Amino acid sequence: MFDETHLMRLSQGQINTLEKCPRQFQHTYIEQLYSPTDPERDQRLMLGSRFHLLMQQRAMGLSIDSFLEADAQLRSWVDGINSMAPSILKASNNETRESEHYRTLQFQNYLLTVVYDLLIADSVQAQIIDWKTYPKPQNPRYLEQNWQTRLYLFVLAQTSQYIPENISMTYWFVQPEDKPQNIKFNYTTVQHEQTKNKLNELLTQLTQYISEYYQGKNFPQVREGSKICEKCQFATRCHRNYAVFNNNSESSPSLAVESSLLNLVTIEEVTL
Ligand code: SF4
């Protein structure tokens, strides 16, 4: 149960959920109701976690050869990054780099928390690198709107001397049968102000929802008939079981788009 007397930590995943459906946020993070684990998903997460760990060890200058010899999949991913972007794996003299770089920012009554897979910085600019062990999304717009991108850039601008225009975030997608691909987002002062305003709005709402929750009122649900409920583990609890009888995302372009966004926003941070 959430303790309302302490500052609440918020990650990008939690803000994505809050924006998507406040009731889902309540069930997941306030009441901590979880669905049974999915073995296939767990296996994917474990492989992703091992890749993150290897990249961290490599950034620290530790040898990872024995791990790569034992796992062809990991070796092809690391070789792919090596051939596509060798500069990411090699430090130059005038820059600092840190893997699993952790930052927090107090914003209203919340601690916004980010963990950068790799942060490369010099005296003028800073670049956030994030590894993804799934294919590059077709439409970068969804990734740009995802709170991982927005929050990671925002927190760095707020907690460093870099102006937004000198900050960027690059996602590298490593995938089994293909070369790694990337999407880079440059930041601007306008985006920074927009993110600040949106965070103010969302977190003011959250404070109100939490206050009302402790007076016996549930967080709001998305509208009846929303496609979001069709992929939600709380559909039965919310009496939104119509999803089971209407799950034809392959034939609906709008639903397919929404589903791909859902998949993105529910991607969790890999913890090491
Ligand atoms: S079923 Fe729908 S309303 Fe209920 S938590 Fe899930 S998305 Fe929200």
Highlighted features:
Lambda Exonuclease, Chain A; disordered C terminus; 11 helices; six-stranded mixed beta sheet; single chain; globular; 272 residues; alpha/beta; 6 strands
For the secondary structure, the number of strands is 6
The small molecules bound here are:
iron/sulfur cluster
Low-confidence stretches: 245-272
H/E series: EHHHHHHEEEHHEEHHH
**Computed Rg:** 20 Å
The level of helicity is 40-55%
SS content category: alpha/beta
Word description of this protein:
- This protein has 272 residues and is of the alpha/beta class.
- The chain has a single domain (8-224), classed as Lambda Exonuclease, Chain A.
- The protein has helices at residues 12-20, 22-30, 39-59, 65-70, 72-84, 86-89, 140-145, 147-158, 189-213, 242-245, 253-265, and strands spanning 8-10, 96-107, 110-121, 126-132, 167-175, 178-186.
- Strands 1, 2, 3, 4, 5 and 6 form a six-stranded mixed sheet that branches.
- A hairpin with a 2-residue loop joins strand 2 and strand 3 (110-121).
- Mean pLDDT is 85; it is low at 245-272.
- Iron/sulfur cluster binds at residues 21, 23-24, 27, 221-222, 228-229, 232, 234-235, 238, 240.
Quick take:
The chain has helices spanning 12-20, 22-30, 39-59, 65-70, 72-84, 86-89, 140-145, 147-158, 189-213, 242-245, 253-265; strands spanning 8-10, 96-107, 110-121, 126-132, 167-175, 178-186.
